[in-house]
């Protein structure tokens, strides 16, 4: 269980990332990293991370991004991985020890409210970890104080669902057998809360950032990291919008949904590659004046 307060503004997210969802992420982490790792590296490249810099990795999860950032900044630099999930941070610390990485550390922290040292970082990075704040403007204002003057932001977030067939196609297949869940509140925390470019620009400029830029990234991802159809279906049914809809409807339709999702993914499968589907994201960058 998380040591963080469950009464704060992100209490629901803290609870979510410390229950079975965290266990699912840990179980599938290697597949997740293979699938979305290239998108995270695009954001790192956009940030122009240099030797000796100090980086905070927001929503670091099991630590793959933090360790890669640590390699980029070298022994003269440092990286702090921050997350609200106790089990995922335990996994991250174990990975750092196994890789003998000494310039990265991990802290259980809600980045919206955590008292980071003022001006402690040169770069704020996140790979799909900033879309879950209850009040993103307050969160980025807090993070801005943790950046030095001239410090940089670079993160990657999803564009809308309809631009991401790797999520939309299996979800449509699932809805043949289960009802769609109620629509979330507009801008509610979740994977698509930063899909609207105008909203993200308003969040960042409202938090005091300048030079906000958006790079549209269109790539083909290997669903489940390049595994076969059965593994790709397992991946879809454990993580993401289809998994969330299935949890809402109950377990009695799992077999039917799994079969429908498998059928929907089959046209995208080749034996030598795996399930390859289109994905659309923003790489967003900004600077603290």
Mean pLDDT: 93
Output the radius of gyration. Answer: 19 Å
Distance between the termini: 38 Å
How many individual β-strands? 8
SSE pattern, N- to C-terminal: HHHEHEHEEHEHHEHHHEE
- For the record, what CATH class of the domain at 11-162 and 185-222 and 280-287 applies? Alpha Beta
Named CATH architecture of the domain at 11-162 and 185-222 and 280-287: 3-Layer(aba) Sandwich
| Poorly predicted runs | none
Percent of residues in helices: 40-55%
Task: Looking at this protein, list some descriptive labels.
Rossmann fold; 8-stranded mixed sheet; alpha/beta; 8 strands; 289 residues; globular
Give a verbal description of the structure:
This protein is α/β, with parallel strands linked by helices and 289 residues long. It has a domain at 11-162 and 185-222 and 280-287: 3-Layer(aba) Sandwich (Rossmann fold). 41% of the residues lie in helices and 22% in strands. It contains eleven helices and eight strands. Strands 1, 2, 3, 4, 5, 6, 7 and 8 form an eight-stranded mixed sheet that branches. The longest helix is centred in the N-terminal third of the chain and has 19 residues, at 29-47. It is globular, with a radius of gyration of 19 Å. The mean pLDDT is 93.
């Amino acid at each position: 269980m998380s040591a963080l307060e469950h009464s704060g503004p992100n209490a629901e997210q803290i609870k979510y990332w410390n229950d079975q969802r965290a266990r699912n992420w840990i179980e599938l982490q290697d597949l997740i990293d293979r699938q979305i790792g290239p998108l995270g590296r695009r954001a790192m490249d956009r940030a122009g991370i240099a030797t000796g810099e100090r980086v905070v990795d927001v929503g670091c999860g099991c630590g793959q991004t933090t360790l890669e950032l640590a390699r980029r900044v070298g022994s003269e630099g440092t990286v702090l991985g921050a997350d609200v999930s106790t089990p995922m941070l335990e996994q991250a610390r174990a990975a750092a020890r196994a890789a003998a990485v000494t310039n990265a550390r991990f802290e259980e922290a809600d980045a919206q409210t955590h008292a980071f040292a003022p001006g402690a970082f040169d770069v704020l990075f996140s790979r799909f970890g900033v879309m879950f704040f209850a009040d993103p403007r307050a969160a980025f204002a807090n993070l801005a104080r943790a950046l030095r003057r001239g410090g940089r932001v670079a993160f990657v977030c999803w564009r809308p669902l309809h631009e991401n067939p790797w999520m939309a196609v299996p979800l449509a297949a699932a809805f043949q057998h289960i009802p769609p869940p109620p629509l979330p509140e507009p801008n509610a925390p979740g994977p698509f809360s930063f899909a609207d470019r105008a909203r993200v620009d308003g969040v960042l400029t409202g938090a005091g950032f300048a030079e906000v830029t958006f790079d549209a990234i269109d790539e083909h991802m290997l669903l489940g990291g390049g595994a076969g159809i059965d593994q790709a279906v397992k991946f879809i049914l454990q993580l993401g919008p289809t998994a969330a809809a299935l949890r809402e409807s109950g377990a009695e339709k799992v077999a039917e949904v799994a079969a429908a999702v498998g059928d929907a993914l089959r046209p995208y499968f080749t034996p030598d590659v795996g399930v390859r589907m289109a994905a659309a994201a923003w790489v967003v960058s900004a600077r603290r004046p």
